[in-house]
Amino acid sequence: MRTRAGRTRPNILLLLIDTLRADHLSAYGYERATSPSIDRIAERGVVFENAISASPWTPPSHASIFTGTYPSRHGVDRSRLVLRDDILPLPDVLRRHGYRTYGVSSNYWLSRETRFNRGFDRFAHSWQLVQTGGGNAPLERQNRKESLGLDALANESDHGWLHTCGTALNTLYERGTRALRRSWHLYDDGAWRVNATVRSWMREWKRMDEPFFAFVHYIEPHLRYAPPGRYRHLHLPKGVDDRRIATVNQDPWRYLTGRAQMSAEDFAILKGLYDGEVSYVDQRVGQLHATLEREGLLDNTLVIITSDHGENIGDHQLMDHVYCLYDTLLRVPLIVGGPADFARGDRVAEQVQTPDLFPTILTLAGIEDDETWRQVQAQPLFPRDLRSQPERPAIAEYIEPQPPVGILRKRYPEFDPSRYDRTLRTVRADGYKYVWASDGKDELYEVAADPGEERNLIDAEPDVAARLGKSLDEWLASFSPARKTDEELELDAAMRQRLEDLGYLA
User: How far apart are CA 102 and CA 111, in angstroms?
Assistant: First the structure.
């Protein structure tokens, strides 16, 4: 099924909230009322209760959403942040078939420098006051060399004084907003500017005849947790003040390497701050949705709310979203509303994956292009079809440890990170989740009976592990994986600092 014949092609609005765990949304049964706006949107569409990401961190997960493929196929990872030219990203496909495409990103991994703007008519960075293309000159050179097929590219051209002035203004803007956020709790991580950018596009959307595709990316739940204004204390334990908040470690690497000891109260505070970020971005999502409705732009618009991955907040003795494939990182929200295929107030228990969005959107847009469909590894997620078909396995991959263990060794020479130097793949099927590890330390969980993945059954149920392991091998053998590259990503000082601010070691 590749078309929904006789139907007007819908607008498509993909709202992606970085680092958002499904189990921290009240729409998914969370004990705290963290997401009243998203809950109301969910009541008008379909809630997919078991949506699984294809990867536990940003670049490969987004690449999977935008291509309908898995990390082994598209090849985007730590050592290769740029999508291969022979794989078509969603905005490029839609633009070729008559859509106008818009994107705004709040994550430095998703930028012009990583060519994430490929296929967008308009693409904005929420962290830039002036939209310039600089910030990572070595990677820009690498990308141009690759696209031109050159071994070297001499005489780099100067961007000119306008670019220089814009870069200076952006630096001042970043420093100022960082100070407002961290010291005064008066600013967010970009959600305000994201909404302002989208509002400026709405004037075009109302006038033009073509349908639009808009990718709208928020990053607020990402480390470092610093919800602004009243959201700072909204979900904190009673009696916790700003002085106590300031003592809580938010450096995942200090915790991971044992330099910072953390108590149950510390993690309760971190969860409260994380939930404050969720509630704050929920408010911004609600504002944007209300504006779209007021402007009459929702009548024929498919609205998708999802995330690229979740977060460990002390779960499994981990912080951030690194070094594992537990459901704290892989189970993400997925809410879809709009055309009649996604009925009001429906909830779907069947297992789906975020790469399934790609073929779903192709189908609704009436795109039957064989070249595009040949790359697709995922399947459409129309509820009626899901309920009439056998259960689909879900697959996720963590091909390269991020950050590389070499960086941990350099930063923390007394810590042995070798346990994290491995590739992980998982398959979920028949109520079980099997995790293959390149170091031989495989895991098996009965996810329905053990949702916290606390009891490893790898020795108790070897037949189940062998059967799921075989299915994973067969899946991997069914296509030609991308070749791994040994190139190291070159980062300039500005990009390095931005990634450090997000909790990455770069």
Answer: 13
What is the structure's pLDDT at 57? Answer: 97
Q: What is the pLDDT of residues 196-217, one digit of tens each?
A: 999 999 999 999 999 999 999 9
CA dihedral 158, 160, 166, 172 (to 10 degrees): 70
DSSP string, 304-372: EEE-S---EESGGG-EES-S---HHHHEE-EEEESSTTS-TTEEE-S-EEGGGHHHHHHHHTT---HHH
- End-to-end CA gap in the chain: 43
- Which amino acid would we find at residue 82? V
Residue pLDDT, tens place only, 255-305: 999 999 999 999 999 999 999 999 999 999 999 999 999 999 998 999 999
Residue 252: exposure state from Cβ atoms within 10 A (0-12, 13-18, ≥19): buried
pLDDT tens column, 150-183: 332 233 334 565 566 777 777 777 777 777 777 7
Q: Which distant-in-sequence residues (6+ apart) come within 8 Å of 490 by Cβ?
A: 136, 138, 139, 142
Give the torsion through C-alpha atoms of 38, 43, 47, 49, to 10 deg. 90
Q: What is the average pLDDT value for the chain, to the nearest integer?
A: 89
Buried b (16+ CB within 10 A) or exposed e, 177-195: bbeebeeebebbbbbebbb
Q: What is the number of other CB atoms lying within 10 angstroms of the CB of residue 405?
A: 17
**DSSP state at residue 440:** S
What domains appear along the chain, each with residue ranges and CATH number? 11-392 (3.40.720.10)
Q: Residue 144's pLDDT band (boundaries 50, 70, 90)?
A: very low
Q: Is 241 helix (H, G, I), strand (E, B) or coil?
A: coil
Cβ(366)–Cβ(3) below 8 Å: yes
- Structure tokens of 347? 């909830």
Q: Residue 5 — φ and ψ, nearest 5°?
A: -60, 150
The type of residue at 332 is V
pLDDT above 60: residue 138: no
Q: How far are the Cα atoms of 116, 315, 356 from residue 212, in angstroms, in the given order?
A: 18, 40, 20
Assess whether pLDDT exceeds 60 at residue 5. no
CB 147 within 8 A of CB 153: no
In contact, 226 and 262? CB cutoff 8 Å: no
Q: What is the pTM of this model?
A: 0.90
